[in-house]
Design goal:
- The chain folds into two domains: 58 residues, no CATH class; 36 residues, no CATH class.
- Helices cover 34% and strands 31% of the residues.
- The protein contains three helices and four strands.
- A hairpin with a 2-residue loop joins strand 2 and strand 3.
């Protein structure tokens, strides 16, 4: 069970987080202080070959969304998904500028 394995923390009253092979969050109070009749339990699982501690891996995974946002802006907002020319050198120059 989680109590015997892993590291527990309580970031705020009513929210306990355990770190071990999976991450489990148990909420009994929402962010506004309202107590719930039935607790919410959420499990997050990561598989990785990285040899880092769990908190570092979770932080790296959370920052992945930032990279995806920039990639999306290049493709959609700057319309880089369509190449402006049939010539390779011109397209390479446009991608390098982007």
């Amino acid at each position: 069970m989680p109590k015997e394995h892993g590291h527990w923390s309580e970031p705020r009253p009513g929210k306990r987080v355990a770190l071990f092979d999976v991450r489990m969050t148990k909420r009994t109070i929402d962010q506004h202080g309202q107590t719930w009749l039935v607790p919410e339990i959420m499990l997050k699982v990561w598989w990785t070959s990285l040899e880092l501690d769990e908190e570092t891996i979770i932080a790296l995974y959370a920052d992945h969304a930032t990279s995806e946002r920039f990639h999306s802006e290049l493709k959609i907002d700057l319309d880089i998904r369509r190449r402006p020319s049939g010539k390779f050198a011109t397209n390479a120059l446009v991608l390098a500028c982007a």
